[in-house]
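Lab notebook, bench 4. We co-purified these components, and the gel suggests they stay together. Before we commit to crystallization screens, I want a quick structural picture of the whole thing.
Request: model the full complex, all chains together.
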Amino acid sequence: MNEAVTLDRASGARVASEPIGSIPLAFTLNGEARHLHVSPWTTLLDLLRDTLDLTGSKKGCDHGQCGACTVLIDGKRMNSCLKLAVTLDGHDVTTIEGLGQPGDLHPLQAAFIEHDAFQCGYCTPGQICSAQGLINEGHAKNREDVREQMSGNLCRCGAYPNIADAVLEVLGTEKSE
Amino acid sequence: MNASTKIGIGTPLSRVDGVDKVTGAAPYAAEYNVANLLYGVTVSSRIAKGKITAIDEAAARAVPGVVDILSHANRPKQAWLDRSWKDELSIPGEPFKAFHDAQILFAGQPIAVVVAETFEAARFAASLLEVTYEGEAHNIDFEASLAEKFLPKPGSRRNNYHPPKSRGDAQAAFNEAAVSHEATYHLAPEHHNPMEMHATTVEWHGDGKVTVYDKNQGSQGVQAYLASAFGLGKKNVRVVNAYVGGGFGSGLRPQWQVQVATMATIHLERSVRVVMTRAQMFTHGYRPECTYTVKLGAEHTGKLTSIMGDATTSTSRFENNMEDIVTWGMMNYASPNIHGEYAIAPRDTYTSADMRAPGAATGMTLFEIAIDEMAYKAKVDPLEFRLINYSEVDGMNQTPFTSKALREAYREGAERFDWDQRSPEPRSMKEGRELIGWGVATGMWDAQFSKTSASAKLNANGHLEVACATSDIGTGTYTVMVQVAADTLGVAPEQITAKLGDSDLPTAPVEGGSWGAASTGAAVQLACETIAKKLFKAAGKMDSKPLGDAKFEDVEFVEGTIRRKDAGGQPLALTEVMRASEFTVIEAEETASPGIGGMISMAQKSRNTHSAIFCEVRVDEELNQVRVTRIVNAVAAGRIINPKTARSQILGGVTMGIGMALHEETFADARLGRWMNHSFAEYHIPAQADIHDIEVIFVDEPDAEVTPLGVKGLGEIGIVGTAAAVANAIYHATGTRVRSLPITIDKLMG
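Here is the predicted assembly.
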């Protein structure tokens, strides 16, 4: 089945449409098989936010410099603003919405709340996806590692110590340096 | 009411909006995917000054999906008079009006918007717009602008500016002083750079009605502004800012994207979204560049005899942005002779703006570097020097403080930091290849209170809703509202919903000046107290007389019940009162304002927060790389509503202070008239690896007078003085005194 990407703006419903030059894309999004048609110039981030209404992934710079748009692609963290959607054919994408939901929080989400690891919340989904990527990589053993390996995710509110605490709790590692 | 048995205020409740934020469910301004939405991409001026002579739209309009292009040449009607464009925090001058005419006032000025069915089409088409300019000579170099510095006349100054008050003969005392110090300090321009870029989604409802989802720090200010500028009428404009991805002052005044998005919506009669790019986040307000000459005179003992300050900050050519720079040092220290001078210098940029602790973050910080230098000259420990010159009253205004626990902050901070283990001489502490330095500085900010209204609504099922048009820019306002309501009515936090960030809600000012918690908290408390009184009255009408002959003063509201403080009788469930009285809902709306007593108190007493910041740096002896390895910030800020979120506020302020000390600087290209480093790759803010150990202490500071809840506010005090503590620690580590922030490696190499 081909699912079209264009919203019918008048009704708000997603209806079949075939934009000129659209390219078929089959991938897994938050555990669900998706078959879309996308434009070659659409980033994964804009596809998520504007078309699929998955606005948990944030746009903070659109240049791969802030990490707010971090998602997991095949379990690896990636700035979704730097990834063209058409390149994802056959891949597995997990966004913050796929990690956990209200009532069924992912351990990182719960730890972020407990440690007050955010203020405005805008960098938070990217931080959490990045932290899951860090855990998947398996390289971080202590606070210094976490601080270094979470440095691709900027937080202007300055929640860094609390973010490190939250990640360390889930890593199950000693908090002390 | 007896607070001792309450839950709510003083407990470390996790943020009530936490689940929405960590799951991505919380919607920010660009995330309302309303039906029939168009995307606007704004084109920025390539020149700094002059005028647009032509715009060739042909190629842009040929892009499939492009709906329209708006510029000064074809924009819809908007207000002509400057007074129609005033906002809640307008400053003297002519407010910027996007697409108003062909004039270019600054590089990056929004000059056209391309509106299309998709973001990608709009972005591509915007790149095809051919704009021809006629340039004029411009200046964005701060040093050069000082030749034109001036002091606006009283009456044409901005509202919250406080002119320095001089006393005695400071110059003579300086000349005669046994120990003296004179130096000029500098702060680079800084841009706020909240993580969320300024964004607006305008939903068109037809018949001139719009809902404006906008990034700002005050929904009602933006509502009034748009209603006036576009002649819409307030009832047709609803502004929503339920979630704001950081502000730090950048959302105090309406930013240009809300103008552009609203203009396009009205013209096209369709919903339009406009989001700034990160580069465009450098085309509006910024913390003004500052030069500040400090002269200090003291006796041999280190007792100050003269404080002199002369500062200039940058503004634009179209508005006069003024800050209190030289006043902070004069307020914080005791000196018989003080003298302050202040001016502003215009240049061809957007107007500088309030950024986290405007004035103090600059003036107090730079002054605290001068104080450190003076301590060394007087051969007095830098902490001891501050205690020698401690002022029990506001040193400039000579008014008492409602409270000032700075002495306790110094003591508790020093103890935690082990300040007494410090070796006095610079370059005397070392480990491996790193020089170690310990520095101290003082912070000071206003404790303000602003007239605010709130409503409360108790439902028959025991659920309580409190509401206020205020904003939560990450400050924790949602959580504070729930805690104050829980404290006042004894309802469990899980049973309470806080609503904010909507111009339809009870009146509130912009979220700024650190007055949010004190003001919104007081309004919520009043509204909940009114509910309490209504409940008590209803309970009195119950046939069973469950509270007996108790007066209102004799009862307390705890655990969802009303009960007698003398423990007589059974606790009476609020839901039982509701049921017995056949109420489906009890509602109240109240306004907290300083009142006459408060106004008198404000005139007679100074109201401030204070802090003592202790900092350890480690500086690589060969590479001059600086690491801020330890900070203890002891804060005296009255009553703390939530220790968990309060600590976070200070962590955030300290982190931004470390940025001010080491990283943040927007570079001006005088030739092009542009900010050069307009991206996160080149404008450095602290990253996770830059931040080590930060400890926050809240000093006990009971203050029943400062605000109704005894709360002083915490949004800004954390940044004030932090960069000075870092700079002073760097001097102690290296023996190199850098008087220009940020302290980058090149400056340490000398």
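Chain A has six helices and five strands. Worth comparing against the SEC data before the next meeting. The longest strand of chain A covers residues 23-29.
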